[in-house]
């Protein structure tokens, strides 16, 4: 068997015997994915209950309530009748509903006159969006009433005879605002918490391989293992390839196992298996190169732990393993593209929402491999002494 | 006094360890910065806009969208780019202003303005609903201008201008808004959210990984040597506990001070904040000592500690407000001490609470501390003897 394989086999056996490696590589990302999956079960999509107090009982109130039950809106809110504004306020405070609409008595009658009365949205500071969405939906309905009133007023101001006001009002009531929003489906799945954070956590914990391996390299060296291997005699290159191979295999297996288990257990969707595999391979290669860089930079075990620790958390923070990077400010999204894990997260986001296969993953994979090549060259230039020392 | 000497010895080791200092101080501050800058927008929708050459009406519509208080607008060059952005969650929806929109509207043709939203996706639908009244307000002027022109009075351009003037003066049917619930259940957005939650997360997580101090002491036979000094088990345990509490307090003070000075976080009523910080430091100390006696190797503590710390932090509402998760998980989350600490910080920062307000949370946290410290003392006793 080639010496590199022997070195890799020994490293892998050693790692598997240590239960903390399994915990970091598989158990930890699964536990965190499980927590996320449970926390957001049924709470991921924006939805709220809206109380409606109808004191008007007229045609305008009926139209307003119908607009709150239109097909597009139905996925956003469900309407519950409330007897009075006081009861609706109490329901908001007890969190039974998240916002309420109070339609005042006389609204329908007042719409044609000079002093129309206004509906009121009752809101809660704990669900500002429910309040503003209700205001928007009612606002859209009211906009047609206002457009009709404005149409009559403009016609009269432009010189239509004042005696025609009643006829104009009747004609205006049949108008529709000439700009209308129409839904255009994206053909994309919504991004789900579990589908984002499963790869995010899998990658985060696989990044710890950098700390783990660089630390073990210096432990081996302090125990004279590297010298003994070289006396075997094994070329330094074989030792390096062996160590790199063990990191690669462990990292890749860990990512693939977490991908499989989160898919089966928590319903995460990572994307097309081939593309996911390609991103995982590229990501693991970058971890191998980063491990090489830490070994090349550090001179002692303590230094390796420090550099690796800082590197792992810097990458995880910038790459979007903790925060949902798509929703971050532009600067964060740009910075994430300077990290291999940031590119991997972008690939997983695109794969899990837009579908697509290797084509979708091609650019991220190329970017990760480019990053890895640069890191490998720097590590190679700096690191000859690490093995030969 | 001897216990203090034991504590000082532990502290000295931590201060000399630059890696430990990085995780104790630099990392929490960077995380507070990043999460504080990111976790915003619980009350606004991000909306994309693609202008395919809509003309003046399109430009006016974009300005109106930008002026809407609950919308934040981002521009995209093409429908493809906007669709990708919606799919990735960069924006909740996107509006496409079609080519020739201005000409078509003035010619009396109805214009369909596509909004990128899936029928089944309620977040996208809610964002689209927020865009609708802005579009309708503009459409109202156009409807009025066309109507007046068809009634035989003036040109479309003249009437558009007239409608614009009238819209500003005409009494409109408005939608009023009134706050029915002003008791905030979540921390304020931005750094006032990230600083207290990350304080809770990192003090606990740091204590768990700090268990390595005890593990290394066990491995090196430090406790046997201390016993030979001779020191009683009570002194050794008290010394170790004191060390953990002081480390947690130092870390807390640095986070609180940086939060106040750099990030402008107001930490609320001071006596209450101090009581909470001290109680949480004791909870952390208990957890750290349990970690030091339960885990066998430093690798176990540094591997399992962060994973456990993060999982409890997520359950306890440090990573997202527990008000947005389902009710079962809200209750399960309160099995973690973090949830009580975050509840107490929410009472202080969001509702101007005082020591009296957070007494129930402090009592529960004291209970957690008592259980953890008792467990730690029993385990330490076994380790030392």
Structural commentary:
By secondary structure, chain A is of the alpha/beta class. In chain A, 68% of the residues lie in helices and 7% in strands. Chain A has 16 helices and five strands. Chain B is built from 15 helices and five strands. In chain B, 69% of the residues lie in helices and 8% in strands. Chain B has a four-stranded mixed sheet with strand order 2-1-3-4, with helices on both faces. Chain B has helices spanning 2-16, 18-38, 56-67, 79-88, 101-106, 122-150, 156-169, 191-220, 222-228, 233-261, 270-294, 298-315, 327-333, 337-351, 359-384, and strands spanning 45-51, 71-75, 93-97, 111-116, 176-181. The longest helix of chain B is centred in the middle third of the chain and has 30 residues, at 191-220. In chain B, 55% of the residues are buried. Chains A and B meet through helix 2, helix 4, helix 5, strand 4 and helix 7 of A and helix 2, helix 4, strand 4, helix 6 and helix 7 of B. Strand 5 (179-184) of chain A pairs parallel with strand 4 of chain B, so a sheet runs across the interface.
Oligomer: heterodimer
Number of distinct helices of chain B: 15
Arithmetic mean pLDDT of chain A: 86
- Low-pLDDT windows of residues of chain A: none
Q: Could you tell me which chain pair has the largest interface and how many residues each side has?
A: A-B, 117 and 119 residues
Structural classification of chain B: alpha/beta
Overall geometric form of chain B: elongated
* Physical arrangement of strands within the biggest beta sheet of chain A: 2-1-3-4
Helix content of chain A: 55-70%
Entry summary:
The complex is a heterodimer of chains A (389) and B (385). Chain A has 389 residues and is α/β, with parallel strands linked by helices. Chain A has helices at 3-17, 19-39, 59-67, 71-74, 85-93, 107-110, 128-157, 165-172, 193-222, 225-231, 236-266, 273-297, 301-319, 330-336, 340-354, 358-388, and strands at 48-54, 77-81, 99-103, 120-124, 179-184.
